Amino acid sequence: MLLLLGLCLGLSLCVGSQEEAQSWGHSSEQDGLRVPRQVRLLQRLKTKPLMTEFSVKSTIISRYAFTTVSCRMLNRASEDQDIEFQMQIPAAAFITNFTMLIGDKVYQGEITEREKKSGDRVKEKRNKTTEENGEKGTEIFRASAVIPSKDKAAFFLSYEELLQRRLGKYEHSISVRPQQLSGRLSVDVNILESAGIASLEVLPLHNSRQRGSGRGEDDSGPPPSTVINQNETFANIIFKPTVVQQARIAQNGILGDFIIRYDVNREQSIGDIQVLNGYFVHYFAPKDLPPLPKNVVFVLDSSASMVGTKLRQTKDALFTILHDLRPQDRFSIIGFSNRIKVWKDHLISVTPDSIRDGKVYIHHMSPTGGTDINGALQRAIRLLNKYVAHSGIGDRSVSLIVFLTDGKPTVGETHTLKILNNTREAARGQVCIFTIGIGNDVDFRLLEKLSLENCGLTRRVHEEEDAGSQLIGFYDEIRTPLLSDIRIDYPPSSVVQATKTLFPNYFNGSEIIIAGKLVDRKLDHLHVEVTASNSKKFIILKTDVPVRPQKAGKDVTGSPRPGGDGEGDTNHIERLWSYLTTKELLSSWLQSDDEPEKERLRQRAQALAVSYRFLTPFTSMKLRGPVPRMDGLEEAHGMSAAMGPEPVVQSVRGAGTQPGPLLKKPYQPRIKISKTSVRGFRREEQIFSNVMKFPFASILEL
Length: 702
Fold this sequence. Notes:
This protein has 702 residues and is α+β, with helices and mostly antiparallel strands. Helices cover 28% and strands 33% of the residues. Helix 1 crosses helix 3 and helix 9 (416-427) runs parallel beside helix 10 (444-453).
């Protein structure tokens, strides 16, 4: 009843009872009387900025997702107020557009080159940035502004990402955390997959950090009010909870992540190739292959900092993983602190007895001493190299290290570059290193570079999360290698500027993606050749794939886009190619230790990011404005999720840069923008917070 009363009071406040509340509260204070609880609630609601709308529109076309977040707020107070817009976005996403409407003024983001000379200053500020609000695998974008009394503000944020296939599913996650109950809250997702949608599910809202928020009554199946419409190639998912439904989930407005998982049909063993206006993408995810034998060494940090829950959860997870090993696999276990403790000095075959003995060894590990990361890695690599050299199974197996730590190197070799060089020289591209960092004190950037340079992956587990379940989930992604030494070739006369075509391994449930440009846009067949090794033989796949160009100028429902002529519309395959190419350049830049090479990679990544409006470590966002508000601007933002960022940019730039009408009183809004990264790579080139005054151009830097 109290909640309903509070909502009713909030509605009455919105329709004009502020003056009555002010006079009532003021007279009560003068008379020395106690202010009734309902009035105190009314006063708190009156002074807090009201979020009138929070909406997310996302369109996924062939695994490439365009997302636009819209947030509208109202300052109901009689004085100016600070208003903050906050949004968690996937760590793999690139921000492509940010626009603010303050009153009748528009402030438009523009991606430009970032000046190289500011790098040192950015790194210093990076070390002061906290990560307290980041969910796993996300980054936080914040923008705040001082809004005049009785005025409105609107924030529009657009970002793009290529969905990765893990465990046989693509996952699209949208953060629904408006920080308060919203009168109009909606999530609208369109999925268009020409290959056909094989499966689709909407998960319950997920919030790994509840921070006092409640959970819905029914935690199985889609969240309340979710509506799904689907046919063979198209799906529309709408989540539109009422205020009461929101309150049942979380009264503080932190609802959680709205997660969609789906997969597509696969017919050809050589993969699915799609073409649009001279660009192509090749999705390669073979199935029904026998698994490759694994040679795996589990390397577990047993230093003093692992005491308690972390070590117990990790041990339990390893017990489960050992039982999952196949008879053809080989394994060993290393525990490390200031000493390197090896279970066996050679790899052991998988038998009931060896699994039991391994579990006993893990059970007796006790936390003590420092952290010798270099020594542990060197010992693990020697074990694998020794086995492969003497068994003659190298081309028919995959050598892996699963490395888990919660700290930084403190014993033995502690210099990061030397550890990386030592590991790279010892592994020689023959050993893939998969790393897991636990907690806030781990050197995650070191772990990420170890995995990047040695054909692996990395994951981060926050302090309060279940390390055991995270470790099992991570291992599940790599438990079934199907191919090794994969090479995908296209005729040089037909394809240029292709992304990476060499891959060390392919794991069941994942996907290899290559994109590039076609020399001849009228090409009707594309020759593709795939070579790889599996457990039985060396395989070669050759075929001429029919090229069926997709038609631009259509939206996801098949209706013509307004003003589209085909050539000028957003080409999702071209943007996918630019996204993937930029990611690979950034990764190569991170791995390189050669300064001339790093500079060449930086320039290429920067030029591409500016051309396609990606906010990266080498680009900045300048906020241009103010410009007068145009009719149709908000509609353009609503369309941008399906069409990419271009329509919004055109609509604002077309308005010119002349200042618009004055506000109700002379006013210069103060804008503060920051972005917190929880991934190792982007931590090096961190966005910094800065207070910026308009109408001068402002800069947001990564």
